[in-house]
Amino acid sequence: MDFDQELKQVADAYASQGYQVTIRPNPEALPSFAKDFKIEILGKRGTEGVLVAVKKDRDEVAADSNLTRYAEITGLQKGGGSTSPSWRQRTQAPGRLMGREIFRKKT
Fold first, then answer.
1. In this structure, which of 2, 6, 74, 99 has its CB flanked by the most CB atoms within 10 Å?
2. Distance (Å, rounded) from C-alpha 27 to C-alpha 22?
3. Model-level pTM greater than 0.85?
4. Which residues, at least 6 apart from 5, have a Cβ–Cβ distance to it below 8 Å?
5. Per-residue pLDDT of the chain (107 residues; tens, 9 = 90+)
6. What pLDDT score was predicted for residue 52?
7. Phi, psi values for residue 93, rounded to 5°
8. Helix (H) or strand (E) holding 97
9. Which domain holds residue 46?
10. 3-state secondary structure 2-63
11. How many domains does the chain have?
12. What CA–CA distance (Å, rounded) separates 67 from 80?
């Protein structure tokens, strides 16, 4: 299975949880602080949202220094209300790909 097929499997996993999923979203679709982030999946579900970077394996996740920068930028965001969401970070391994859920907002 190639990367695009596995990426779709990751996206389908979010869709099965009720997220409206966009694969390889344009910068305009991302939160204002994340416009320059290289994200493979954007998911929205009610007042929640996820930005996910997907890598082929753990080595690619470890080698991507941007993920740390993304987490630092996200950590500086104030949030907690419907107009100002809060964000958090989590790592997961769906299938053979590593999916790093960089940000999840919940208001």
1. 99
2. 12
3. no
4. none
5. 788 888 898 899 889 999 899 999 999 998 888 899 888 888 888 777 778 888 877 788 888 888 888 878 877 766 555 554 555 444 444 455 555 565 555 54
6. 84
7. -130, 80
8. none
9. 3-106
10. CHHHHHHHHHHHHHHCCCEEEECCCHHHCCHHHCCCCCCEEEEECCEEEEEEEECCHHHHHH
11. 1
12. 23
Residue with tokens 């964000």: 87
* 59/76 Cα distance (integer angstroms): 27
Q: Which residues of 42-68 are buried (b: 16+ CB within 10 A; e: fewer)?
A: bbbeeeebbbbbbbeeeeebeebeebe
